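Input (structure):
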């Protein structure tokens, strides 16, 4: 049994921490992490609750393989009702925090209520206590982590915290652990801030030893690592170039949303690509990229560690930005760069470091700035109102808006509400490139039809990681499909979504699925966990999780009308690239998708579907 079978329930209103047994019947049905925590959340809160009210709960959850020898087994998720979207939020993070929590003896932490004053949760194995965070409030993630390690005299203490963005209720605030790994999307950091919970600091020395069949598990793990090492993506591409390897690939095929989705190709993409990170040198001859980095137990090591050239950009950068620190990933580089027409690599790195330091999702932040720049160029927003000129391509505007948003200053407070609220406020909701209130990531749904459907149907709003159709439409994994075609995409997407829901519940990283199929994952789960974890059972678990999330969203007020895309993607064709002249053909795919899901024409799971899945 790879579960610890224990939950830590923290009531901030009462100021107490209580251990309780894990519901093993639910674990058998939902596995762990995303699935199991979602089951707890939907069972304990009203779907219509205000996400920032004390009645909302926030759950930190590990998977059964978190903290084990399985490659990439260091993941944890944060599950809550998201303030950016008003739907269920599950934000996944790597680094070392998840494994430490599991090693301390906990499968999950359920946080409820609201503390009257700022606090942090300190966990040392099976002991947990709430301590004052008065001196930490108003400080950055980086300062908080350093202070707590020094206070507890433990450099191995693992810290997950919010910065000023979470405190100031920026609706896309993130929760950051290990300085630059983040549960980044949907505003989970704002929920944490609304509860006056600054951080969770954990030290675990108990280890993870409850493996059902140790010998079979180690054999399955070794076989899986071999597959990852021999795969071109996980063994070569991601370790060498990270996710930024996609920048030139996606741009050249005409699928890179540019200048708030006005265009699908960015002329400055090469200047901010993975290759540029390798080649660009500062005045002292050092390259921008320092090294790659791995999370706990990871044999892929896709993370980037970069340095900023303090002599390059006019912003007065802080000394801690000059040395090696968290580097640009593809989604962040796109959102800060292509989405705004900014091709200054150092400016992107500076804005990204601000997002890390103060806990903001760079995807939602960058995409919201793209909306600001379009409103500015249309004359709807003025320089006086924003506080600076903000045309497309302005590196200065990007960096200044990052500072203002992180600090909760001036127009940054408006940016911090996300593009849906911003564009609605200024009478142009059509210019918000969002689904269910969450900003798009780095793939254009007109050029990649499968991704268009994935965005529209995602349970947490626009998201690439809920069903990464790019694998098929660009890389040919597991099969090659024409990105411009709609035929077959609903069936393939459903398979991707169900499989991803399962992977997100294991404690493994979804990047393994560039190389692994469920046939590689199933033996690891079966050997680690008690019970029946056949391939059929795992896939049914993923489908059950997807429908559970859908049920919650429907109860929260989401309808089939929300399974759509912005008018720009539906009506304005691509002007360049391989998909020139195309729009997102969502109407051709959505009815078939609903049918395959076993939902009504209104997108509601039927009684037969609910019975089959045990909902």
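Output (sequence):
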């Amino acid at each position: 049994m790879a579960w610890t079978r224990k939950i830590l329930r923290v009531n901030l209103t009462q100021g107490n921490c209580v251990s309780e047994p894990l519901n093993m019947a639910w674990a058998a049905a939902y596995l762990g992490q995303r699935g199991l925590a979602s089951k707890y959340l939907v069972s304990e809160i009203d779907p219509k609750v205000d996400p920032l009210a004390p009645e909302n709960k926030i759950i930190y959850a590990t998977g059964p393989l978190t903290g084990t020898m399985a490659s990439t087994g260091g993941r944890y998720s944060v599950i809550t009702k998201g303030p950016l979207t008003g739907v269920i939020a599950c934000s996944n993070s790597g680094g070392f925090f998840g494994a430490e929590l599991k090693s301390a003896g906990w499968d999950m932490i359920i946080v409820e209520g609201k503390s009257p004053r700022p606090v942090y949760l300190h966990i040392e194995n099976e002991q947990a206590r709430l301590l004052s965070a008065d001196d930490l409030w108003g400080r950055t993630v980086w300062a908080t982590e350093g202070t707590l390690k020094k206070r507890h005299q433990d450099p191995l203490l693992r810290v997950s915290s919010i910065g000023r963005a979470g405190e100031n209720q920026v609706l896309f605030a993130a929760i950051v652990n290990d300085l630059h790994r983040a549960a980044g999307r949907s505003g989970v950091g704002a929920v944490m801030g609304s509860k006056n919970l600054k951080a969770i600091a954990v030290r675990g020395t108990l280890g993870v030893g409850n493996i059902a069949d140790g010998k079979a598990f180690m054999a399955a793990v070794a076989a899986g690592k071999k597959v990852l090492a021999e795969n071109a993506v996980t063994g070569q591409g991601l370790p060498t170039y990270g996710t930024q390897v996609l920048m030139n690939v996606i741009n050249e095929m005409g699928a890179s949303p540019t200048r708030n989705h006005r265009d699908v190709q960015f002329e400055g993409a090469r200047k901010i690509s993975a290759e540029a990170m390798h080649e660009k040198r500062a005045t002292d001859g050092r390259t921008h990229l320092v090294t790659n980095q791995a999370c706990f137990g990871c044999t892929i090591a896709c993370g980037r560690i970069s340095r900023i050239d303090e002599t390059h950009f006019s912003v007065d950068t802080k000394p801690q930005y000059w040395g090696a620190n968290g580097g640009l990933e593809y989604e962040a580089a796109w959102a800060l760069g292509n989405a705004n027409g900014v091709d200054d690599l150092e400016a992107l790195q500076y804005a990204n470091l601000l997002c890390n330091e103060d806990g903001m999702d760079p995807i939602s932040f960058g995409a919201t700035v793209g909306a600001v720049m379009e409103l500015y160029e249309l004359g709807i927003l003025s320089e006086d109102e924003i506080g600076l000129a903000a045309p497309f391509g302005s590196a200065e505007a990007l960096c200044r808006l990052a500072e203002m948003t992180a600090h909760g200053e001036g127009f940054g407070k408006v940016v911090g509400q996300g593009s849906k609220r911003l564009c609605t406020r200024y009478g142009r909701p059509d210019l918000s490139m969002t689904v269910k209130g969450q900003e798009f990531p780095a793939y254009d749904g007109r050029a990649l039809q499968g991704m268009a459907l994935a965005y529209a149907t995602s349970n947490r709003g626009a998201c690439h990681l809920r069903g990464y159709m790019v694998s098929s439409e660009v890389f040919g994994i597991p099969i090659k499909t024409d990105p411009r075609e709609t035929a077959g995409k609903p069936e393939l997407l459903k398979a991707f979504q169900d499989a991803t829901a399962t992977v997100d519940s294991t404690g493994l990283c979804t990047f393994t699925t560039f190389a692994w199929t469920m046939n590689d994952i199933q033996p690891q789960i079966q050997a680690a966990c008690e019970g029946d974890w056949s391939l059929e059972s795992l896939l049914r678990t993923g489908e059950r999780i997807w429908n559970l999330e859908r049920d919650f969203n429907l109860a929260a007020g989401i309808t089939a009308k929300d399974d759509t895309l912005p008018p720009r993607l539906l009506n304005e064709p691509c002007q360049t690239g391989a998909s020139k002249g195309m729009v997102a053909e969502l109407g051709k795919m959505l009815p078939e998708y609903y049918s395959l899901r076993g939902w009504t024409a209104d997108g509601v799971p039927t009684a037969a579907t609910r019975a089959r899945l045990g909902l």
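Notes: The domain at 448-613 is CATH 1.10.599.10 (Aldehyde Ferredoxin Oxidoreductase Protein, subunit A; domain 3). The chain has a mean pLDDT of 95.
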